[in-house]
Amino acid sequence: MRILTGLKPTDNQLHLGNYFGAIKPMMMLADKFQDAEIFLFLANMHGLTQLHDGNQLKQNSINILKLYAACGVDLKRFIIYNPADIPGHAQLNRVLTCLTHMGFMERMHSYKEALDKGTAKEISVWVFCYPILMAADILLYDADIVPVGKDQKQHVEYARDIAIKFNNKFWETFKIPEPYIKPEVWTILGIDGRKMSKSYNNYIWLLDDEKTILKRVKQIPTSTQTVEEPKNPDECNVYKICKLFLTPEEDKELRKRYEAWGLSFKDAKEYLYEKIIAFLMPIQKKYAEISDQEIIDLLHKNAEKVNELANKKIKDIYKKIWFSL
Ligand code: AMP
Question: pTM of this prediction?
């Protein structure tokens, strides 16, 4: 079985939301499917549409892969690769684009959302076409499972529909991928109680220093309840973030402290700060030990193997559509 997922290197950092919402579920999935091959690719062709700076894209890619490794992603097991080394992505994208109609693409939620904000003339061609490139990224490797957030489910459905259409029109060629939807519980809140996101400026980066983390924790808004008043942990942002770092026993203990009297929000924030530091410092230490070159070498090494696989698939596809005579 093959699991495939991409990461878009449009930022040079990752935050706690990325860790608990993407990296951790990915590692858990890898544990669950011990025999699966796991393909993790840099979605830099998708990233290029947002970031027109090659050097930045390169450095972001390296930093993010180093962070994945520092967080515990086993890069001996996860096959990381760069589609820029593998012409098959662009080749298959071209073939699939020829088979896809405007009306089919116009049903896309993300396109409709973009239309709600402006006119079709202002929307990038990429927004309209990106599920086709995503379909190529997935179908090129006969992926069985594609882990995505709920908002990306429709894009995997596009890949499925495109694959079915191709298989019906030509010969059985593509495996039909299954989306693996990450549960809602994996939505991580930022310091203001909204979804943690770079655009809301409510994040804690995995590489933030202690001073910045303390400042961020202090910024978490709390109610005006006094120390003496029992508190509902489920209504407290400090608790909601803290919960991510707790064992079930620690969680039970903290909930008890909230529900009894005597816990100030200052105490709760200090506790959260200590938990975040205990979690992030080992990651930061490991990150500092990984060199950029190690990541570049691994990408080059994997490119050979992945390219071989992709070329084989492209040959088969070209044969099926009579490109190769
Ligand atoms: P982004 O950089 O926002 O495209 O996110 C990259 C990955 O991290 C996606 O798989 C998201 O689902 C995940 N992610 C980002 N922010 C959060 C969050 N606040 N909660 C859960 N997952 C998140």
Answer: 0.92
